Structures are given as C-alpha cells and as structure tokens.
C-alpha cells in the first residue's frame, strides 16, 4: 500500500549524514539538554555506560535504538567510554531553534562535530590526573630512521627524539602515553608493544607523516620560516611532529592547543631503562597496577600539580649529564640547609593552581572564569616568591626565580577585573569585579535595582488610583503587569484612568493591566540583564586574549614554580627520612653505605619496625664488579637488589638517597630481572619470559650498566637452570663487564668467586633456633651453604606432615649427594610414604610451666633487680 514505506525525518537524515563522516567514533548528537545516540552507537554506549536503551521512531521498518546522557554530565561519560576503548565525536547545536525557524518552519537546527574526544586529547580536569602527564605520541619511520614525538595538550609540552625502532618499547614505558599515532598499515608493527604498555593505537593517513608537508605544518603553527628555528630535525622527527599537529587539527576541529616549540631530546641523554625493569622496580606503578606502593607514591612530597608532573618526568628519565645532576642536587641541598626558607616556599606553593592546564583550556575555548582566576592566583604567588630574600640561590633556582618576575601588568589587570571566587562558566556571569567597567556597573544597577523601581511604581499607581490592593506582579507569559480585583477594575477602566491603564487580561477574580511606562521599564530591566551578560562575555574574551598574548611567559613561570616545588619537596623528604646527598661522578664506582629500600622502609615505619640497612660496593675500576648473593628466601635478597638499583636511579634524577653515604659512577643503563611472571596471551611461559628478559640484558648491557638479576634459571630443570645461570654470570663478567648483583640459590656458583677476579660472594645472614630460621636481613661477605627452604615452607603454614616429610627427603638427598650416589639411586633409597597419612603431632594438653610463669609476668611493673632474678629463674626452668 502506498504510504507504508517509512520516510527518514530531516533530523535523522542530518544525524546519518554526520555519522557517516565519523564511522569509528560514537556520535554524541546534541538535542537540547541531552546528547543522544542512535542505532549501533546507542547499543554500544548503553552497554558501556550501563544506561537505559530505548527507541525513537523507525528506519527501514525497524525501531531505531536510542540512548542519551545529560550534556552537563557528559565529561564523566566521556571518561568511561575512553577507558573502554571508544572515541567520541561531540556534535553540538550551532544555532538556537528560534534561529532555525527563521529559515523555515521545518528547518533542522544546524549541527556539526566540534571535537573528537580520544585518550591523548583530553584537557578537562575531571578527565585527567592532575599529577600526571597525558601524552599523545606519534611514531614515524623513514627508511632506516625512526623517531618518536609526544605532546601533552593539557600542558603544551611538545618533544621529539630520534631512535632505533627497537627502542619503541622502552620509550613507551618511560613516557606512558595514552595514545600512539602510526601511519596506516603500520599498526601490526607496534600493536604488541603498545598492548604491553596499555597504549591505545590510532592509525592516521600516511600523508600526516610526510616529512615535507609535516615541516611546513609545524613551522606554520609556530609562525616560523622553517623547523631550523628550533633545531636540526631529521625526516622521521619532522614526520612525527607533523603527525601530532595534523591529528590535533582533526580532533580539535581547527582549535589548536597552545603548544610550546618542539624540544629535541638527545638519544643518550637519559638512563636507559626497559619496560621490564620499570615494572619490576615499580617506579611509577606497583605490580598491581596502581600508584599506591610505587616508588613515585612513596617519595612524592610535591604540593603543586606541575611539581608532581616534573617529579614523575625526572624519576622516569634519570639524567646522564653530570652537570644537570649536580645542579639539581645543589637545589635540594639549598632547601635542606635553608629550612625556614623552604617552609615559606612550600606554604606559598600550596596556593598555586595548575597554570599549565588553565592555559591549555583557555587556548582551546574550553576554559572559563575560574581559569582566568587560576592564572591570576598562580602569578600572584609567583610574584610573592620572586620578592623573597633567598640569599645565594643555586643555579637552577636562581634561573627559576628570574622567570617568576615581570608579570605585574597582567597580574594587575586580572586582580582588578576578577572577583575572588568566579563561577565555572562565563555564561553564568557575575565574575567581573564591581568598578572595573562603568557600562557593566550601570547595567547591573538597573538589573539588580529593578525590583525597587517596580515597588516604587506600585506605590505610585496605588496612590494615583486610590486602590490599596493594587499589585504589580510578573510571570513568564505577560511579563510585568498590574493586578487588581474585579471590584476595582471598573475604576481603572473608566476615564481618566483608562488613558493610563491598558487592559490586558481578565481572570475569574482578578483583572490585569499595564502602562506604557511599565512596559518601557520592563524592557529596560530585561535588557539590562542581557546587556550585563554580554559585557561580561566581551570582557572575558579580552582577559583571555591578554593571558594568551603572554602565554609563553606564563608557561615559563609555571615551570619555575615546579622547580621550586620539586627542590623543596625532595628536601623535605631527605630531612624527614634521613636521606643523604650522593656523590655522582664519571667513574665506575658504586659504593653504598647503609643503603635502604625507600618503599619497604616506609611500609615498615608505619608499623613501627626498623629497616636493616646494608652496604654494597661494586667499585671495580675498569673491570666487571659482580656480587653473587646467596641466602634463603624471605631473607631480603630481592629487597637488597632493588634498593641499590633505586638508589642509583634516585641519585641521577637529582635526589638525595636513602643511605648513609653513596658514591656512584654514572649508570648508563639499568636492567632488572626479578620475580616470576608469564605472558600466556603471547604463548610465553614463566621461564620463557625470564629468558627473553635475560637475553635483552646480555645483548644490550654495557660497561656503564647496573644489572640486578634474581634467580636466573629457576624455571627449568636443576642442571639446565644451573648451567644457564653459570653462563649468564660469565657473560656479564667477561663480555658486558657490567656492575651487577646476581642472586641465586645455586650454591655451586659460589665457586666462581675464586675463578673470576670481578666476582665476590655475599650472603644474607640467618640464624637457626630450635629448628626454626630467624632472618637477620644483614648482607655480609661469604656464601650461604643452605637455602632453608623447608623452614620457610613451615613459616608459610604448610601442614606439619608435609614439612616433616620434606625434612626426611632433604636429609636423604643431601646425605646421598655427600656419598656420591646417583640421583636415581637417591630416589630409590627414599622411604615411601605410609599407606595412611602421617599422624599429626599431638597438641599439648595445656601451657607448659615456663609459659605459665611468663603469663604471670607484668614487664612494666618489674624493677631492674626483679627482671634480672626472673631471667635466672626462667633459664633454670628451661634446663629442667
């Protein structure tokens, strides 16, 4: 039948047209106060956001799935969708419905996508961690060249680094970007690496990476004739930078963020740390994935967002420049010595907002009055710091102090213009201070005093008519009107009052009038409110423009504040936790006295337990220097290994270290192979993961590397494992010539100390008492003769029968080995389990006399003499 075929409504046609341009994103289609989604987008979004899926109309005879979210709460939904791997295209109304009707009764409101929300392009505070960067990275390969560029559009940072393609994994681990751009067709080359790091991969057209057009694109952004104005960049570097700029133009729909000129990082300017080592050492995230329990969380005493981000950058990228390390340590030393100054600095810094992200939002037109106030407050604290008496500041802090000066003109403007606590949105108005703009003050006065004016008119009309019950009221339909009872209406509708009062409406009990004067006043009052808001919006744009004109100076001031924050934070850490300034030099020394693990020590401090400090000396001159560490599990071998790696890392980031003293020759590479894990998704067993990580170390470590290895070869048969561990140690000694700590349970390897000049035996000491093992956590020279595995198993709570059986088997195996028996013969000689499980040892019927005696003792009430007598008495009882 004719007319049965459904037609596509104009609105749905518009939706489908826009959606076709963004097939890989969820289209948030603005309809009034909601963002609506339709078809497959609605199904996917409803499931991801756990919201109701409904329907709206039909398409091709089928119901159209639909869901929606309030526009004022959209940011929270964006974050949920981004974390679940979606991209969001935000489609806004570009005109009001009233404006659309002017084009025709059935005209559809103009809409278009104003922004693509992706993991690497977030700017809102609610979507970001204030204490971490949110990097968008781009990986470019041009023949044999490769480069990685990265930007944080929320702070304006832009960097690029040439590198070998094999370095992609370690650099992604260092930067932890949210999103990685690659050329179409290259996804397969990076997906595995990116998945390991939890990085979202986005493919863009190859044209985005074209080095020629990329150079023009980047140069144009910074209004320079060529990239040479910022340094010398290779083709791959230019391509990576250009891809980022192109992607930002696409996702931000032409509103580019306020990026700083590109900074080229040296390939060998920072300590090389691979992904496995970062994970094993728990530098910025614990093995469970959160910040809690990481080194970063333990040492972070910063009080500003920019300072926290600077700390993470320095911790992730320890420097190889002796000059830079020395300058940073000088800054921390100054703050530890000038404690009063440091306390005052930190008090000021606590009032500093996030200048970088406020600037970014203003540049993208996503800011508001509070961002203007953030710049005002930040520059205010900068000016206060700049005028302090610091004395003789070290180089880095002196440079930072200079950057805090020279903002008086902008600061005065913002202080004069803004109220103390502005609203979030410019459209709310009320953020410009009284007295700043005469025209605004006049409009506000009329708007705010309109009620008084209307009350005066009501009194005037009441006197004029002689009607005491006359009232002036207001509603959204009629506006202002004069209301009286029907009883008095005849008077107002009769001459001469009828010439002044104009009848408007009659209700059941009331009659309503207006006057020319009242209508004119209503227009003035309404216009005054709108006029005031328009003036404030204009002033907001002016203030924003004034800030953006000095954006580079404001960004530099933010960096300077971060420098003061980090120096004072590390000083507070050093004072509170008794850390000391390390000596970092160009030798191959590695001498630590009284070293401690910062995270473990902090955890023990919370429960009131002390940390046992230990020395470590790997100063081997030009030769390898390796400590072969033996001892039982749970004795602290892994802690000792990790703490020395962390001390080296902390020293080269420019921090004091948890030790009595530390002398460290620059460490070029830090490698760690500790713990057991598998990678079943990629078909790797625990032993295979261990071997892959060990291979990476042996193939890359140089004579400036620091290597920590724990339990190499334990994931396979005994002799296979021993042979692999043995050969690994020999390679480290003879080929890599690295400084290394090598922990093992293969006691046979301790013989290597007598065969290799650079190998020394060390052990973690324990004591045995009544069949139990006591861990002393002290590292001393020498070799352990046992692993105490059975005792540790007993501590873990294995059933007594299992522990006792293990002792029997261990004694038999050790006796057979001493007597030279073959392994099969040893096993044949082992007594078999009984047919029934071994009986559990009988539980004591009650406390022993010794326990009873101790139970009656109250230590706090004993005198020294009584305590000494009690000790003699207890000793006598124990010997009976």
TrEMBL record:
Secretion signal, residue range per the UniProt entry: none
Q: What does this protein do?
A: This protein is involved in the repair of mismatches in DNA. It is possible that it carries out the mismatch recognition step. This protein has a weak ATPase activity.
Its keywords, alphabetically, are:
ATP-binding, DNA damage, DNA repair, DNA-binding, Nucleotide-binding
In this chain, ATP is annotated as bound at: 631-638
Protein name from the UniProt record: DNA mismatch repair protein MutS
Q: Which family does it belong to?
A: Belongs to the DNA mismatch repair MutS family.
Species name: Shimia haliotis
A GO molecular-function annotation: damaged DNA binding
The top of its lineage is: Bacteria, Pseudomonadati, Pseudomonadota, Alphaproteobacteria, Rhodobacterales
Region Disordered: start-end pairs: 836-861
A single BP term in Gene Ontology:
mismatch repair
The residue ranges of the DNA mismatch repair proteins mutS family domain are 705-721
- Any one GO cellular component localisation term in the record: cytosol
Compositional bias, Pro residues, is annotated for: 838-847
Under the heading HAMAP family, the entry gives: MutS
């Amino acid at each position: 039948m004719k007319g049965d075929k459904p037609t596509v409504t104009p609105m749905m046609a518009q939706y489908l047209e826009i959606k076709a341009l963004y097939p890989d994103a969820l289209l948030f289609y603005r309809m009034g106060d909601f963002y609506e989604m339709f078809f497959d987008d609605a199904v996917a979004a409803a499931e991801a956001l756990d919201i109701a899926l409904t329907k709206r109309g039909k398409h091709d005879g089928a119901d159209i799935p639909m869901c929606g979210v309030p526009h004022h709460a959209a940011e929270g939904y964006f974050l949920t969708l981004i974390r679940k791997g979606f991209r969001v295209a935000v489609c806004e109304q570009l005109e009001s419905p009233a404006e659309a009707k002017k084009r025709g009764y059935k005209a559809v409101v103009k809409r278009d996508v104003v922004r693509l929300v992706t993991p690497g392009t977030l700017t809102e505070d609610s979507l970001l961690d204030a204490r971490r960067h949110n990097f968008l990275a781009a990986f470019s390969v041009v023949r044999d060249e490769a480069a990685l560029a990265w930007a944080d559009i929320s702070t304006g940072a832009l960097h690029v680094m040439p590198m070998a393609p094999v370095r992609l994994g370690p650099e992604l681990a260092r930067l932890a970007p949210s999103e990685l751009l690659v050329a179409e067709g290259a996804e397969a080359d990076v997906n595995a690496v990116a998945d390991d790091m939890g990085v979202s991969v986005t493919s863009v057209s190859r044209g985005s990476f074209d080095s020629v057009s990329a150079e023009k694109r980047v140069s144009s952004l910074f209004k320079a004739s060529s990239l040479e104005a910022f340094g010398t960049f290779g083709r791959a570097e230019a391509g990576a930078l250009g891809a980022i700029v192109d992607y930002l133009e696409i996702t931000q729909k032409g509103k580019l963020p306020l990026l700083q000129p590109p900074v080229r990082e040296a390939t060998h300017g920072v300590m090389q740390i691979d992904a496995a080592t970062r994970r094993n050492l728990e530098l910025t995230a614990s093995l469970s994935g959160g910040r809690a329990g990481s080194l970063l969380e333990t040492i972070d005493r910063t009080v500003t967002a920019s300072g926290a981000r600077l700390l993470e950058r320095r911790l992730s990228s320890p420097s190889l420049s002796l000059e830079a390390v020395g300058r940073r340590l000088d800054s921390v030393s100054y703050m530890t010595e000038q404690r009063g100054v440091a306390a005052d600095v930190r008090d000021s810094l606590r009032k500093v907002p996030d200048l970088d992200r406020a600037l970014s939002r203003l540049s993208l037109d996503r800011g508001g009055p509070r961002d203007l106030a953030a710049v005002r407050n930040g520059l205010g604290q900068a000016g206060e710091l700049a005028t302090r008496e610091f004395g003789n500041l070290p180089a880095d802090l002196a440079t930072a102090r200079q950057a805090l000066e020279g903002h008086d003109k902008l600061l005065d403007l913002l202080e004069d213009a803004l109220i103390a606590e502005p609203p979030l949105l410019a459209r709310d108005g009320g953020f410009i201070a009284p007295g700043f703009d005469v025209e605004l003050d006049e409009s506000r006065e009329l708007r705010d005093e309109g009620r008084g004016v209307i009350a005066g008119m009501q009194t005037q009309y009441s006197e004029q008519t002689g009607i005491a019950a006359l009232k002036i009221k207001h509603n959204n339909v009629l506006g202002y009107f004069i209301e009286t009872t029907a009883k008095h209406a005849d008077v107002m509708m009769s001459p001469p009052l009828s010439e002044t009062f104009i009848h408007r409406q009659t209700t059941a009990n009331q009659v309503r009038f207006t006057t020319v004067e009242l209508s004119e006043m209503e227009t003035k009052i309404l216009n005054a409110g709108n006029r005031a808001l328009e003036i404030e919006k204009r002033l907001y744009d002016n203030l924003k423009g004034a800030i953006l004109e000095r954006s580079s100076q404001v960004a530099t001031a933010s960096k300077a504040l971060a420098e003061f924050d980090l120096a004072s934070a590390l000083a507070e850490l050093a004072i509170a936790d008794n850390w000391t300034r390390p000596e970092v030099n160009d030798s191959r020394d590695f001498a630590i006295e009284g070293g401690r693990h910062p995270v473990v020590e902090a955890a023990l401090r919370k429960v009131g337990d002390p940390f046992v400090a230990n020395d470590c000396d790997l100063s081997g001159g030009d030769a390898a220097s390796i400590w072969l560490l033996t001892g039982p599990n749970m004795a602290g071998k892994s802690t000792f290994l990790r703490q020395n790696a962390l001390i080296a890392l902390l020293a080269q980031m420019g921090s004091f270290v948890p030790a009595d003293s530390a002398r460290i020759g620059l460490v070029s590479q830090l490698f760690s192979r500790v713990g057991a894990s598998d990678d079943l998704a990629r078909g790797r067993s625990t032993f295979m993961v261990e071997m892959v990580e060990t291979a990476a170390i042996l193939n890359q470590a140089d004579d400036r590397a620091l290597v920590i290895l724990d339990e190499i070869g334990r994931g396979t048969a005994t002799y296979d494992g021993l042979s692999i561990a043995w050969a690994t140690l020999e390679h480290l000694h003879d080929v890599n010539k690295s400084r290394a700590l090598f922990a093992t349970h293969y006691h046979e390897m301790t013989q290597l100390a007598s065969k290799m000049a650079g190998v020394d035996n060390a052990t973690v000491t324990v004591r045995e008492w009544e069949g139990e093992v006591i861990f002393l956590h002290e590292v001393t020279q020498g070799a352990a003769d046992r692993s105490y595995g059975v005792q540790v198993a007993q501590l873990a709570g294995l059933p007594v029968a299992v522990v006792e059986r293990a002792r029997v088997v261990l004694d038999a195996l050790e006796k057979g080995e001493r007597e030279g028996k073959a392994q099969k013969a040893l096993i044949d000689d082992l007594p078999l389990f009984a047919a029934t499980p071994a009986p559990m040892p009988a539980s004591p019927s009650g406390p022993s006399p010794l326990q009873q005696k101790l139970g009656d003792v109250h230590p706090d009430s004993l005198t020294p003499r009584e305590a000494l007598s009690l000790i003699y008495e207890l000793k006598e009882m124990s010997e009976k």
